[in-house]
Design goal:
The structure holds two protein chains of two kinds. Chain A is an alpha/beta fold. Chain A has ten helices and eight strands. Chain A has a single domain, classed as 3-Layer(aba) Sandwich (Rossmann fold), CATH 3.40.50. By secondary structure, chain B is an alpha/beta fold. In chain B, helix 4 packs across helix 6 and helix 16 crosses helix 19. The chains are: A alpha/beta, B alpha/beta.
């Protein structure tokens, strides 16, 4: 721990974000740095793995160990790093196209596996960096540059999907409410297991439907309705809410053993600290004679 | 007539699920413990039950490298085996079959009169000795040993070693059932058989597949995490490592797909451990973007690609060397990679361990290229010397260097191209590993000047790595040959077997194997080609992929070319015939 309390600005890189003015990503960037400061993590205590997209561009704006991988493939990189060093704090930043489209398979299996990492998804319901095409979360009928006659496909409901697929921590935040977002990032990070935080994050350039104003009129906090996040059926019902009322907060949480805890080879020292000069395969060689 | 001692080929044929591969493996082990050399190979369709499966075990007193087409003993568990393989039997050879299950007539033998039929009630003897139906294979094994006049003592030792964990009852049941087949043949077919086994005293040898050798190379080389999705013929590396994970203190992770496999390995390697992934061509196709990620982020990575015939699903359980050009060029852009193609199980072991060193020291991807023949065939081989495997760690930033810098210049230009890397989680040393082109700290950068610095730095690592590589060309046989087989990968085995056979005919041939296919040893190869009296290029693909490389990079070609891409490994006989034709 640092001697002096850490501040949000201790996680700034020399580069200021290149996102559009007013972009919802700024709120997530702020929330993430706030959370790190509040947790007392030094920049070298944490690895942030990024996908590709506007969200992944955050890799140049945060001071921490970073891995800016491939589109859709941030989760497996993060899981590999966590298994190599289970003491390392690992947070994943991705987008909706990145994580629910290109990387959908990894998302499903990460939920099952329950490796202790945190997955924060910037859900702006559109492709920003490639200039405004349909995302897996774009609403039916939306006109985008790749769907000029309107979207036909039903949108993915990320949080309902996460609960159904076996997620042990599923939450939703709104980037227009940084204090709540910060607290949810902290809760997600503290959760022992795979935590999924879907952040509703308006794209001010390409999504003129799901705007800040649109969300402000709809979002409500789950704690205000005394939601029981240990009740999976109730959590699922809340997760399906969209349209007039959109829930934010922890939808579902259960404590179950992490993948690392159940893999007996991971008991003891992290893999990265184990010696490589004492390996002796003579017993196996002998068994082959 | 004196029998032929310690030189025979045995073949068993049946349906998938008949358990024939286990039987062949035990016979192979028997012969190896009897001080002989052996190889075995299975051919099977992509099925769990049914189809036509065979396994061949070839035995010799001299070291042999691949099996012949012919055989002396055929164990036929079904009619198809007789119809397909009776024609391959040497004059005087035998077919062991169960007369209660399979009646063999002249038509099935294609009028061969010089084959002995050895009917043995395989199932009946198994059941009489309290075994299950499937134990008929063990009866057939006993019958084989009886026919070859081989001592039963050794097989008792093998059953004891193999099944002792399952208890004495299982050991004794196997011994009794094997002995029933042995005694039956001795009593009912006492006439001398033209082939026999006489055990010899020799140093212990192992029976091992290419995949086993790679598994052990990974373990001894310091691997701590392997990520894979099952795909024939690479799957047994995953299952081997999963089985041995607790013994050797490592994690074998079966992940959701090959894209995950390569990215999990990259993440683990980035965090400081030695990690690898493995697959066949279809899975490698999915890993391709990850290959480029390892190169761009300069993260060490070892990938094993066990080839099978493509394109697409291809011939899933057969062999080919058709991925060479694909592996050399896979992923967008230019970047350094190392491609190693072991030609035998020993090279598979030592080079896999070395691959982990090279990847870690030079921060680049290393691909081990094998194929189904090497991956799944068994060879008897001297016991590997694990002392020859050195885990040479390298490429890391010293802890005080890392701690002294808030932002670490992980991609600073260096003369060798290798920039020491910090390990995340240790104090200081923060940087970004980036799939975007990046500056010295890893921040995305699109300037022309930086692009050239970084691209040149990456490329320079390959020159630096050259100094850590063994000779990239390997010679087999004596120099100044009248004919040289130029080859790579598992086809080296067939070429080595061919020159052994040619020597007995007074023909002097040798083999030049390209062990490191990238960086391509163009200058050395060009010089060697210039000295050859006659050369023939032999490889298992349709488009002569190595030959094309030689033409392109050496400006020379071999005098002749022999290609095979029917899913089968080369037969030594066809290479012998080719050599005779050329000379």
């Amino acid at each position: 721990m640092a001697d002096t309390p850490l501040k949000n600005t201790d996680y700034n890189s020399p580069h200021f974000p290149t996102w559009c003015p007013g972009c919802g990503n700024f709120g997530i960037w702020t929330g993430l740095k706030n959370a790190f400061a509040e947790l007392g993590w030094k920049p070298s205590d944490v690895l942030v793995v990024y996908g590709i997209g506007c969200s992944g561009n955050m890799s140049s704006f945060v001071k921490a160990y970073g891995f800016h991988g491939l589109h859709g493939r941030a989760l497996p990189v993060a899981i590999g790093a966590k298994l190599a060093n289970k003491d390392l704090h690992v947070v994943v930043i991705g987008g909706d196209g990145d994580g629910y489209g290109e990387g959908g398979n990894h998302f499903l299996h990460a939920l099952r596996g329950n490796v202790d990492i945190t997955y924060i998804v910037h859900d702006n319901q559109v492709y920003g960096l490639t200039k405004g095409q349909m995302a897996p979360t774009t609403e039916v009928g939306e006109v985008t540059s790749s769907t000029p006659e309107g979207v036909i496909d039903q949108p993915i409901d990320p949080v309902a999907l996460a609960i159904a697929a076996g997620g042990s921590f599923v939450a939703q935040a709104f980037s227009g409410d940084t204090p709540q977002l910060t607290q949810l990032i902290i809760e997600a990070i503290k959760h022992p297991g795979f935590s999924h935080l879907n952040v509703l994050q308006p794209c001010v350039t390409f999504n003129h439907h799901n705007t800040f104003a649109w969300f402000y009129r709809r979002v409500y906090k789950l704690e205000s309705v005394n939601h029981d996040f240990s009740n999976k059926a109730e959590a699922f019902a809340r997760a399906l809410e969209w349209g007039e009322k959109i829930p934010t907060g922890i939808l579902y949480r259960e404590i179950r053993p992490t993948w690392e805890a159940k893999e007996k080879e991971l008991a003891g020292l992290p893999l990265v600290q184990r010696p490589l000069d004492t390996i002796n395969i003579s017993q196996t060689l002998q068994s082959l004679t | 007539m004196k029998p032929t001692v310690n030189r025979f080929t045995w073949k068993i044929g049946g349906a998938a699920g008949d358990g024939i591969m286990v039987t062949g493996a035990i016979l192979h082990k028997y012969c190896t413990r009897a001080g002989l050399w052996a190889v075995d190979y299975s051919e099977y369709p992509s099925l769990i039950r049914g189809g036509h499966n065979t396994q061949v075990v070839q035995v010799d007193e001299e070291q042999i490298f691949t099996h012949d087409q012919g055989n002396e003993i055929l164990v036929a568990l079904n009619e198809e085996t007789v119809r397909l393989h009776a024609k391959e039997i040497s004059p005087g050879g035998a077919i062991i079959h169960d007369p209660d299950r399979l009646v063999i007539n002249d038509a099935m033998l294609a009028d061969r009169k010089d084959i002995q039929l050895i009917p043995v009630p395989l199932v009946k003897l198994a059941l009489e000795n309290k075994g299950k139906d499937l134990m008929r294979n063990t009866v057939a094994l006993g019958a084989t040993l009886g026919l070859l006049d081989a001592p039963l003592r050794l097989i008792e030792e093998i059953f004891t070693d193999t099944f002792k964990a399952k208890g004495d009852a299982v050991v004794n049941e196997n011994i009794a059932i094997c002995r029933a087949g042995y005694d039956y043949v001795r009593q009912n077919h006492p006439e001398p058989f033209p082939w026999k086994i006489e055990p010899r005293r020799n140093d212990p040898r192992m029976v091992i597949t290419g995949n086993d050798a790679i598994t052990l190379g990974l373990i001894q080389g310091g691997l701590k995490l392997y990520a894979a999705y099952p795909m024939t013929p690479a799957s047994s590396i995953l299952t081997n490592l999963a089985e041995m994970a607790s013994t050797y203190d490592l994690v074998a992770k079966h992940v959701e797909d090959e894209i995950a496999a390569v990215n999990v390995a990259i993440g683990a390697s980035f965090a400081g451990i030695r990690a690898a992934c493995g697959t066949s061509g279809g899975g490698f196709s999915l890993m391709v973007e990850g290959l480029g990620l390892a190169a761009m982020s300069e993260t060490p990575l070892v990938i094993i690609n066990a080839q099978r015939p493509g394109p697409a699903t291809g011939l899933p359980t057969w062999t080919e060397q058709g991925d060479l050009r694909f592996i050399l060029h896979a992923a967008q852009g230019d970047f350094p990679r190392i491609v190693i193609a072991p030609g035998d199980t020993e090279q598979a072991f030592y080079e896999t361990a070395r691959a982990l060193n090279l990847a870690e020291q030079f921060h680049l991807p290393v691909i081990i290229l094998t194929d189904k023949y090497l991956a799944e065939g068994h060879w008897s081989t001297p016991v590997y010397d694990q002392k020859k495997v050195l885990v040479e760690r390298g490429g890391f930033a010293a802890a005080h260097e890392q701690a002294s810098k808030e932002w670490y210049g992980r991609y600073e230009d260096t003369p060798s191209g290798v920039t020491p890397r910090p390990v995340p989680g240790k104090p200081g040393g923060v940087f970004i590993a980036n799939s975007d082109e990046h500056d010295v700290f890893g921040f995305a950068s699109e300037t022309a000047e930086n692009r050239l610095i970084q691209a040149n730095k990456r490329a320079r690592k390959l020159d630096s790595a050259l100094k850590a590589m063994p000779p990239r060309l390997v010679w087999w046989g004596e120099p100044n040959a009248d004919l040289t087989f130029v080859t790579w990968g598992s086809t080296t085995y067939a070429c080595r077997e061919a020159i052994r056979k040619l020597a007995t005919m007074g023909i002097h041939a040798n083999v030049l194997q390209v062990l490191y296919l990238w960086p391509f040893p163009a200058d050395e190869l060009k010089a060697e080609l210039g000295k050859m009296k006659k050369s023939v290029l032999v490889e298992g693909n349709q488009s002569a992929q190595l030959h094309g490389l030689i033409k392109q990079l050496c400006g020379r070609s071999c005098d002749h070319e022999k290609l095979k891409y029917d899913g089968r490994p080369f037969w030594p006989e066809e290479l012998v015939a080719l050599a005779k034709e050329i000379l």
